[in-house]
Amino acid sequence: MGFFDVFKKESHCASCHVVKPKDQLNDIDFSRRWAEPGGEKALLCRECMMARVTRGIKSFSGQAVVVWPMKKYGGYHYYSFSEMPGLEYEHDVVQKLRTLLEPKGRSCQCQKVAVFTWCSPEIFSNDPMGGEAHLSSAGAQYVCADCLCQALEEKIKEQDISFREINVPVGENGLWTPMEC
Ligand SMILES: [Zn+2]
Ligand SMILES: [Zn+2]
Predict the structure, then answer these.
(1) How far is ligand 1, taken at its centre, from the CA of residue 55, in Å?
(2) Of the residues 52, 98, 116, 135, which has the fewest C-beta atoms closer than 10 A?
(3) Relative to the alpha carbon of 112, which ligand is closest?
(4) Mean pLDDT lowest for which of 71-80, 109-118, 125-134, 170-179?
(5) Any bridge partners for residue 142, and if so which?
(6) In angstroms, what is the span from residue 71 Cα to ligand 1's centroid?
(7) Which ligand has the nearest atom to the CA of 144?
(8) How many domains does the chain contain in total?
């Protein structure tokens, strides 16, 4: 076995037990690195990951700005606005993100209540780590939980993304974004 074969190791989905190369499985960490004690941690295939993420999204009672997942980043992380200043986000970036939340009472194109603001990574000039944000609501769509899950699944399939670390919106209002991990 060559050195690089180590990375092709197979593993199985903790839910449906399908065996896949490890890089096609998704590491969910709903404990958010133990910020949410008791949050589930598991290695899941795309279908089981999406089912679990969908449950998480539907039980979230806050509002969130959601930046599309990007294949070049293996992480997809949720941060509440109140914890972001401690994570090296400039105060004014956080303030601007708050202004992108759906204005109260807006409905999704399907007529259900919109609670998520679905944004292109361009709001971060395609670099979520750069801190450089020309945040505007241009191109942002206000969507309900069902439409968010659908849009998310489309982006994941389109770019064939497997996450090395993914968690879901929980607790307070915040930002769900692609991230290095
Ligand atoms: Zn599975
Ligand atoms: Zn909708």
Answers:
(1) 15
(2) 98
(3) 2
(4) 125-134
(5) 117
(6) 20
(7) 2
(8) 1
